[in-house]
Here is the input.
Amino acid sequence: MYAIVKTGGKQYRVERGQHLLVERLAVKEGASVNLEPLLYRSEEAVFDKGGLERVRVTAKVLAHERGEKLRVFKFKPKRGYKRRTGHRQELTRIEVTEISHGASTGARPARAKAPDAAKPAPAKAAPSKPSAPKPSAPKPPAAKAAAKAKAKPKAASAAKPKPSAKEKEGKDGS
Here is the structure.
């Protein structure tokens, strides 16, 4: 039995009792954290959204660590440009304590019913929105007409064909 979980923008294949180094998690040492499952595999594979809601992957935070130092060197030849910097990634060491695929608990249906109860509230709030002032006023019709009048002469001058090189030579008399 294993699961594929997502944490810190990366995906990991985990089994019960496995130790991992993942991106820094914002929990204290010794605390328990639930990881987001993407796939669960035992006798059958579960990767649909409904099935993954029942999958629980729990891990215990063992320690917060820093990764090894990475040297970053930038260099541009013939310009005298050299830069040396370093980077140490913040990491968390975790141990996967439980992977389970059980029936949904009583708390999950309660959460599913809560949005249904909240649906009438937005309908009541909707009539108050049109009474709010609009952020910007439309331009008066006179300003629109002036803008169109300015645009027409430019379009007319752009419509004139430019004389070709042969026509220019004929005018010069050459």
Q: What stands out?
A: The CA atoms of residues 26 and 92 lie 9 Å apart. Residues 2-102 form one domain. The longest strand covers residues 55-66.
